[in-house]
Amino acid sequence: MTVAAAVLPGTFTNGVARGKVEILQFIRDRTAVVFTFAFPAMLLLLFGTIFGDSYDDTGVSVAQVYTASMIAYGALNTGFITMGSGLALDREDGTLKRLRGTPITSTAYLIGKLILVFVLSVAEVAMLLLVGVLVYDMPLPDASHWLTFVWLFLLSVIVCTLCGVAVSAIVKHARSAGAILNVPVVALQFVSGVFIHPITQLPTWLITVASFFPVKWMSQGFRYVFLPDSMKQYEAAGQWELGRTALVLGAWCVIGLVLCLTTFRWTEKDR
């Protein structure tokens, strides 16, 4: 009598299972939960309180603009920093080395991390919108704008996650991850129109530099979703440029994927 060979779970199944583990580990870290969700909301409350004026002839408050723009900050903070620091920690404490001896492939591991980032990003967006709607009376968009939000949000999460994986290769110690990863994050917030709006207040050359990176297009796209059409006059080109936004984010997805494939390693010795 022939005994059927056991069929091992596939890469996607292992990835989903790993994603559940990642989520449970995150929830158990209460400090991480509080700061991941509370910090962006606190920044929004501070900016909305300090800059309480409205834009001329639009009826849109500065706080509402910050609510839309900071969704990009939430995706960048969650995808780039959570992925970059988490991967560096897993590599340093031996988690990746142990997983290497299991059926978990590098693809399955990254799928699990992506699931964690996606869940956290959705929760963070919900938190920011809750503050924007309840505190700053920001109206929610119609159905067509929500469709734009879906593809824009998915591309933003994928881009930030892939870039977080790639940059983790230069993080030698988990304790230094925050310092290394926060430098580009903070810099991009200021030059990409997240913390400074209208972006036209910045020098032209600085706007040009920001245009090569995804954060400018992410924040601009989210402003299109949640703000009235009259606000496009405050963008660098005077238009929302959704087509260019999709092209830039799509290009960064390819760049991020290539960087991941060439830089990912299980241990520090895999160089």
From TrEMBL:
It is found in: Cell membrane; Membrane. The chain crosses the membrane at residues 32-51, 71-89, 110-136, 148-171, 178-199, 205-226, 246-266. It is a multi-pass membrane protein. It holds the Pfam family ABC2_membrane. It comes from the Bacteria. Its main location: membrane. Keywords: Antibiotic resistance, Cell membrane, Membrane, Transmembrane, Transmembrane helix, Transport. Residues 31-267 form the ABC transmembrane type-2 domain. Belongs to the ABC-2 integral membrane protein family. PANTHER family: NODULATION PROTEIN J. This is Transport permease protein. The lineage of its organism: Bacteria, Bacillati, Actinomycetota, Actinomycetes, Micromonosporales.
